[in-house]
Structures are given as C-alpha cells and as structure tokens.
Predict the structure.
Amino acid sequence: MTDSKIADVTPINKLDCFIGKTFVSIEGMTPESKEITFTCSDGSVYKMDHYQDCCECVYLESIVGDVEDLINTPILDATESSSTDTPPHFSHKYEPESQTWTFYKFRTLKGYVDLRWFGESNGYYSESVNVELIKSQNPLLPHEK
C-alpha cells in the first residue's frame, strides 16, 4: 500500500471487477478530486466516489505512480484496504473526530498506481469510498452471439 507503516490495514478486495479490464480513459484522477471515472475498452464505465451527506468530507488525497501506466493495458491486480490510523508525516489542520484512509492499488505490466483517499467526519457519517458500475459493457450484437 501507499504507506506500509500504517497499522490495522484491512484488505477489502472488492475490486475484482477491474481485474482483466483495460481502461481506455480515466477522468478525475487528481489530488483533491471527489470522483474518478474509469472507462473500459468493453464499454463498461465505473465510478469511484463518495455519497456526500452532511458533516463529512471525502476526497482523493494523493496518487503514487504514473496514471498513464493504467491506460490501454489490462489490470492484473486491484486491491483495496483501509485504516483509521494517521499516516506518518501527515498533519491535520485540526484533529477530526473520526477518519478513514482508503487505499486502492492497481497493477499492470507497466507498473503500479496507488490511490490514497481521505475521509473525515464527526463520527456519525460515512467516510467510505464507493466503487460502482455505472454503465455495463456493450451488449453483443446479434451477429456476435
């Protein structure tokens, strides 16, 4: 993961849907982004974001690696993990009542890209990142069945 010194990192591994997919475009993968859209070569589109409610803030805090390493090459591995510990060398403007760091690691033949999302709240609201399919792959045409 991005910061291997964080204790209590829990693998979630709900990203199996990305393994074998080839991203043809990625939009919004910049620090402080609140939404990333992945468009795949098969026509499927995935979104990574947070459903904003009231008293929480969730955003992409940092990216490690070259985003271009994810374009036009199959995803070989995709994992998710999270932690409530503050990473070393990170300082808050103020100490949140609750925080969650969510790490996404993508691997292709070209290299790795790690995404580090940060969520904070008063402890009542969700700090999670959602990954969802927003458009399924193109259906087969009659002559392709």
Q: What stands out?
A: Residues 1-12, 140-145 have pLDDT under 50 and may be disordered. Residues 10-136 form one domain.
